[in-house]
Amino acid sequence: MKIIVTGSLGHISKPLTQSLVQKGHTVTVISSNPERQEAIEAIGAKAAIGTIEDADFLSATFKGADVVYLMEALGAGSFFDHNLDIMAAHTKIANNYAQAIQHSGVKRVVHLSSIGAHMDKGNGILAFHYLVENILNKLPSDVAITFMRPVGFYYNMLAFIPTIKTQGAIISNYGGDDQEPWVSPIDIAAAIVEEIEISQPEHRKIRYVASDEFSPNEVARILGEAIDKPDLKWLVITDEELLVGLKAAGMNPQIAAGFVEMNASRRGGILYQDYYRHKPSLGKVKLTDFAKEFAAAFFKS
Ligand SMILES: NC(=O)c1ccc[n+]([C@@H]2O[C@H](COP(=O)([O-])OP(=O)(O)OC[C@H]3O[C@@H](n4cnc5c(N)ncnc54)[C@H](OP(=O)(O)O)[C@@H]3O)[C@@H](O)[C@H]2O)c1
To answer: Which residues line ligand 1 (CB under 6 A)?
Structure first.
């Protein structure tokens, strides 16, 4: 099949592209960086250099594709850009995708959404996934769309490193012994490949993706053991304290508030209610696998 992959050679799109190429598909990878062309070609894909901010570029690139894999990317450091309206930025990209799908005539879409996309409010920063799913859902019924809803990525835990180094603990506005799911981009890529290869896709489908489930206190124990700090603790602070800390670190205030509310929705499992109603089988990459990557990053920083 002729497949378009957005997300360049990012965490999901690199293993996704490698797997699709190995399976004999013709893959075109969209990157905003001309210097990425060589690395894209080295794994056997074609490069389309341009931006997902440009609907005409997307329309031209999508033409003739059997399947498009879509994700919304913002530039590096965007969470610290005080001029960014994250909801408006995602709405614009989603509208570009919708326009390009209609202009190019593509009939099969696999879209990277997220846990929390079923909630229009109370999920903080994740509300943009609700907006994007709704925009794509309005596409004509002959466009088959699978919404991938991965849970929180393991790599988010790399953000714990600064407070472990400075205050000897993981610090957030949620914590405790209730289990929650986490996921590896490797398992997400594998699930996307499965969806792409379904020969008669449903008109609309939602698929949650997770790799492992464990509690914040278990995270502290497993990561602590990996970095030679077996007594590492996960400390819980208030929403207000976290908000003050994120803003002091220079984060865009809208996004900081969105992070605080997203984490608050983890308390009591509100964020995960729909996930547990449609619980997927867990992927292969476990927290103990990620702990090795975490330790390497910890000792390097
Ligand atoms: N973190 C989580 O827990 C979580 C949970 C659920 C869903 N998600 C979603 O996961 C996604 C991130 O996936 P990922 O980790 O695979 O991505 P990633 O590693 O951040 O890679 C995304 C790539 O997209 C490219 N890009 C950036 N801006 C672009 C533009 N304007 N036009 C074209 N390409 C652009 C960049 O590569 P180039 O420099 O080569 O262009 C970038 O490396 C986000 O959409 C997020 O909402 C995250």
So the answer is: 7-8, 10-13, 30-33, 36, 51-53, 71-73, 75, 112, 114, 150, 152-153, 156, 185
